[in-house]
Amino acid sequence: MTRTTPYVYTFANGQAAGRASERDLLGGKGANLAEMTNLGIPVPAGFTLSTEVCAHYSDVTEKHGAGAPERFPDGLNGEIDDAIAVVEQATGRDFGSTTEPLLLSVRSGAAVSMPGMMDTVLNLGLNPETVEGLALGTGNPRFAWDSYRRFIQMYGNVVLGIEGAKFEHALTAAMQSAGVERDADLSEAALRDVVQNFLALARQATGTDFPMDPREQLNGSIEAVLRSWNNNRAKVYRRLNKIHGLRGTAVNVQAMVFGNTGDQSGTGVCFTRDPATGERKPYGEFLTNAQGEDVVAGVRTPQPLDELDAAHPQAAKELYAVMERLERHYSEMQDMEFTVEDGQLFLLQTRTGKRTASAALRIAVEMVDEGLLTADEALGRVDAAQLEQLLHPTFDPNAEPTLLGKGLNASPGSAAGRVALTPARAEELSDAGDDVILVRLETSPEDLSGMAKSKGFLTAHGGKTSHAAVVARQMGKVCVSGCSVLTIDEAAGTFSIGGRTMTEGDEISLDGSVGEIYAGSVPTVDASLPPQFKTLMKWADERRRMAVRVNADTPEECKQAIAFGAEGIGLCRTEHMFFDASRILNMRRMILASSEEERRAALDKLAPEQRKDFVGIFEVMDGKPCNIRLLDPPLHEFLPHEAEGQAEVAAALGVDLLTLQHRLQVLHESNPMLGHRGCRLGVTYPEIYEMQGRAIMEAACEVAARGITVLPEIMVPLIADVNELSFLRVRLERVAQAVIAESNTSVDYKIGTMIEVPRAALTAGDIAKEADFFSFGTNDLTQMGFGFSRDDAGGFLVPYLEKGMLPLDPFEVLDFVGIGRLMRIATEEGRATKPGLKVGICGETGGEPKSIAFCEELGLDYVSCSTYRIPGARLAAAQAAMR
Question: What is the value of pTM for the model shown?
Answer without folding.
Answer: 0.82
